[in-house]
Design goal:
heterotetramer, A alpha/beta, B mainly alpha, C mainly alpha, D mainly alpha, A: alpha/beta, 4-stranded antiparallel sheet, 8 strands, C: about 0% strand
Amino acid sequence: MVLRSVLARRPHVLTITPATVDLGLRLAVEAELARRRWPEASAPVDADVALVLGTPGPRLAAVVRSVWATVPAPRVLVAVPTAGVLRSALDDAAAGLRSSRPRGSRASSLSLDASNDALLPDGDWADHREVDVPPEPQMADLAFYDRDGLALDALHVALGPVLPHWPAGLVAHVTLAGDLVTDAHAEVLDVPASVGPGSRGRSPLGPDRTRLDVLTRVLGLLGADHLAARARHLRDHDPEPGELTAFGRRLHRNRPVRWAVRDVPLVGGAVEERTLADRVAHLAGALGGSLPPPVRPTAEKAVQAMVGLELGAARLVLAALDPDTTLGAGPVAAFAPPEVTHHHH
Amino acid sequence: MSTTELVLRLALTAAAALIATGLYGALSQQSVVMIMMGLELVVNGLLLAAGAFWWAGGAPVVASVLIVVLVTVMAVEMAMGFAVALALYRARQVDLTDDAAELAG
Amino acid sequence: MTALVAVVGALGAVAVVTGLLVFTVNSMARATFLLLASFVAVGAVLIGFGLGYLGTVVILMMTIEMMIMVVFMVMLMMNPAGLMPMTMVHNRRGSWAIALVVFGLLTTGVWLVPFPTPGPAAVGDPTLALGDALMGGQMLTMMTLGLALLATIVGTVAVAVSRR
Amino acid sequence: MVLAPGLVLVAGLAAGLKAVTAGESPATPAVETLRLLGKQRRRTPDDDPGLARVGLALLPVAAVLALAVVPLGDRAPVDLDVGVVWFNAMEVVAWFAVWVAGWGPNAVTSLAGGYRVLPLGLAYEVPHMLAIITPAIAAGSLSPVAIAAAQQDLWYAVWMPAAFVLYLVSVAAMAFWGPFAAPLGRDLAGGAAAEHAGLDRLLLLAGRWMLLTAAAAMAVPLFLGGGAPPPITGPDPFPGLPALWFGVKLAVVLGLLLALRRAVPMLRMARFATLAWVVLVPLAVAQALVVTLVVLA
C-alpha cells in the first residue's frame, strides 16, 4: 500500500521515558531520531510509533497502556530496553508500519493491543490511573486563587508524563483556572517520593551537556527549531569549547529569544535565578566556561514554581528548571487528590 | 403584490420571527449569557428589517445608518451585559438571574 | 428578482431556525455557533439586498462578538468542555405565549399594512452614501455612537473591576 | 472553481519551501498529507465531534473565501467592492474555526489551545484592521482591485512601510503560525490539534497553510501593486502576464514570512498582547493618520 510506505518514510515518534531511564539511552534515541529525520510526535494522536525506553515500572506501564489506546492506527509500539537494540528496533518499527499486517515474529515490534502485555512488565494494575489523557472535567471546583479574585471554576488535571520536552516520568497534578496554574504538586512515577534533596547538579552528563540538554528543551518549547536542533547537535557531538561559547553568545545576542522568555518569575527559590530570562541567560552564558553545573531542583520544587503562571509560561519554567526526577518528587507529602469542597451550579 | 413587496414581506416576517424568538429567550432563560443571546436575536431581527426597508424603500440612507446604530447597540449591550454579569458574580458567586433575585430578597 | 425571493426566503428561514435552536441545544458552544449562524444568514441577506459593506460588517462584528462571548462562557458557565444537559429556564410557558403574541401581531402587520415600495433605487455606491451621511447629515448620530462606546468602555470597566 | 485546488497547491509549495529551509525534503508536505490521510480519525470521551468538524472544515473554506476577493493578477475571482472588509470577516471566521476545533474534543490541552486564539486574535486584530484600511484610505476604495490599480507610480509598501510590516506580522498571526503558533503550540502538545488525528488533523494543519497563503496573497494588491510590474523597471518585461508578477510577489511575501518564523520564536500570548497594545497599535494609528493627512492635503 502506498500510504503505508509513505508512513514508514517519516513516522512521527512518541517517546515514553521512565524517570529512572539511563540518560545515555535517552540521548542516543534523540540523536538517532534526529539522524533519521523522524519527527517527534507532539501528542499521542500525532504518533505513528510509540517508543518505550528503558524498563517502565508498573505506574508508567499503566500510562503506556492508556496512551497506546489513544494512538490512531496504523501504529507500532516498540520497546527499547538498551541502546544496543535501538537501531534494529527502529528498523522493525518502520517495517511494521510498512507491512499491512503486524509482524508477530519480532518481540520488539508489535501492533496489536492484545500482544502488548508481552512488552510491559508485570505490575499492580489495581492502581491504574489514567494519567496522560486528561480526566474529563466533570464538575469544576471553585478556584482557590486566581489573578482577578473572581474565584471562577477550576479544573484538576494531571499533566505528563507523555508531553513534548517534559521531564522523564514526571506527573504534575495541577489545578487550572482557565489556562492559569493555581496549584501544583509533583509525582514521579515508579520512584518513591522522598529519596533525597535533589542532585544539586550531579548530572552524569557534565556541566555543558546538561546546560545544552536544558536549552534544547526550552528552545524546543519556544518553537525556535533551528536553535534547538543546534543545541541538541552540540550536546550529542563533543563540540570544541569555542563552538560552545559561540553558541552561548549567539543565544545571548538573540533579542527575540531574550524577549520571549522575559517577564516570567521563578518563585519558590528552587534555583538562585529569580526569573526565567536570568535562568536562560545563565545557562547560555556559562556554556564552554568553567562554572559549576546548573542546579537541578527536586521535582516538587520545580512544579511548585509553575503556580501562578499561565500554562505556556509554566511549561517553560519547568523545562528551564529541569528537575532531576531520578530521585523522585522530593521531600513532600505523597499526592492525594484534592477534596471536593464546594460544588458549583 | 409586486415581487418587491413579496421580498419585503418575507424578510419582515423572518425579522418578526427572530424578534419573537429572541424575546422568548430573553424572558425564559436564567443564565445571563443566554439572556444576552436572546437580546442579540431581537437586534438581529431589527437588522434584517432595516435592511429590507432600505432595499424596498428606495435606499433611504437613514435605514443604513440605523443598521450602524443597531450594530453599535449590540456591542454596547454585550459589553454592559458581561460587566453586570461579572459584577454579579463577584458580589454573589452566581450567574443565574433567579439566584441573584433570591439572594437579594 | 425572483432569485432574491428564494434567497431571502431560504436565508431568512435559516436565520430563524438557527435562532430557535439556540435555546434548545444543550451546550453553550453549540448555542454560540447557532447564534453566529443566524447572524451570518442575516448578514448574507443584507449583502443580497446590495448592502455589501454593512452585511460584511455584521458578519465580521458578530464573529468577533461571539468569540468574546466565549471568554465569558468559559468563565461563567459550568463545565468548560462538555455537553452538560443545559436547561436553565423559568416561566417557559409565559415566555412562549408572549413571544407568539408578538410574532402574531408583527406578522399580521407585515402582511396587512401597505408599504410604499419604490423598489431598489439605482443610486450609486451605498457604502459611499452611508459614509457621506455619517460624516455629514448624520454626524450627530455618529458622535452619539462614539460617545456611547466611550461611555461603555469606561462604564464596563468601572462595573466589572474588583474593588478590593 | 480552480481557486480551491490552486490555493491548496500554492500552500503546499509554501509548506515545501518551509521544509527546505528547515533542512527537510521538499516533498515533506506531500508525505505528511498522505500520512494523515492514511491515519485513523479519533474521538475522545464526551466530546462534540460535530461541532469540532464544523470548525475544522470551516478553516480551509474561510481561506478559500478570503482568497476569492484577492486579485490574482489584474482581476479578482469575485470582484467585491468591499473586498477588504470581506477578507477581514473571513479571517475572523478562522478564529471561530480554531476555537471550536479546540473545544470539541473536551480535553484540557486542546481547550487551552483553542482558548489562545482569543488573546491572539484580539491583540493582532486592531493593528491589522488599521494596516489594511490604510491602503484603502490612500486609494479611496475598499476594493482590492482598485487599491492595486492606485499604485501605478508608487507601491504602498514604500509609501507606508509601517502598515506593510504590520500587515506581514498580522498575516502570521491570523494563520496562528510561526511566532504566533501558540494555539497549536508544542507546550500544549499541539494545542487545538492535540486530539485530532487523520483527516481532522489534516484539515487543521493544511487549512492553516491555506490561510497563511491567502493572507500573504492579499499583501500583493494592498501593498505591492498587484499584478503590475515594479514601477522602477520601466517597460514591462512580461507584458500581459499580471498573474506572473502576482506569483513572483507572492513568493517574496512568503519568503519574508518564513524569515520571520526563523527569526522570532513562539511568543506567549501575554508577551504578544503587550507588544500589540504598546507598540503595534500606536504605530498603526500613526501610520493611518499620516496617510490620511497626506490624502486630504
